[in-house]
Amino acid sequence: MRIIGGDLAGRPIPESKFFSSRPTTDLAKESLFNMLNNDYYFDELSVLDMFAGTGSISYEFASRGTTKVIALDISTKHIDFIRKTAEYFGLSSVIPLHADAFKFIEESNQQFDIIFADPPYDMPGIDKIPDFIFNKNAIKPEGMLILEHSAKNNFKNHPRFKKEKKYGKVHISFFSI
To answer: 83-100 pLDDT, tens per residue?
Structure first.
């Protein structure tokens, strides 16, 4: 696992033995950020990385100049890892927060340019994430929700669905207002 682009391109993300999470593959991450690079100036974005896990997506945004990346995870071990890794890389724009992602959005009045959600594939309620995010007004008007999921989820009939990309077993759906 490595950082794909930006100032830290090619740098490996330290490994941790306690992770049972499934980080976004380098292929999927590279393709995702190539698409985003065509639509956004990273230094103008505010990003929420829900279910941050290893923090791989957060580091990728920060490496490309994003000045505010909130990395949420319910696991204290994951947040400690993200905090230490962000410090190791000198990424002060990564803000690790130990929180339940749904409670955070429920209680926050913040809006983000991009919300990246990579929940556990077997988590109950994945299909409800887009409605929850948009009903809570967590996305800025020109913003986007990016949801990583398995093949068993199909969002093509959702009113805010824009497109889906597939990278092996990884499916990434894009939603906007």
So the answer is: 999 999 999 999 999 999
Identify the residue whose tokens are 């993300």: 13
Selection from 100, 118, 158, 151 nearest residue 134 by Cα: 158
Per DSSP, the residues of 130-161 read: HHHHHHTT-EEEEEEEEEEE-TT---TTSTTE
Of 97, 88, 41, the closest CA to residue 69 belongs to 97
Sign of the torsion angle spanned by Cα atoms 175, 49, 13, 95: positive
* Residue 24: predicted pLDDT: 73
Euclidean distance between CA atoms 47 and 94, whole angstroms: 10
Q: Which domains, and CATH codes, for the chain?
A: 29-35+43-167 (3.40.50.150)
The verdict on pTM exceeding 0.70 is yes
Can you read off the two tokens belonging to residue 56? 């791989």
What is the reported pLDDT for 21? 58
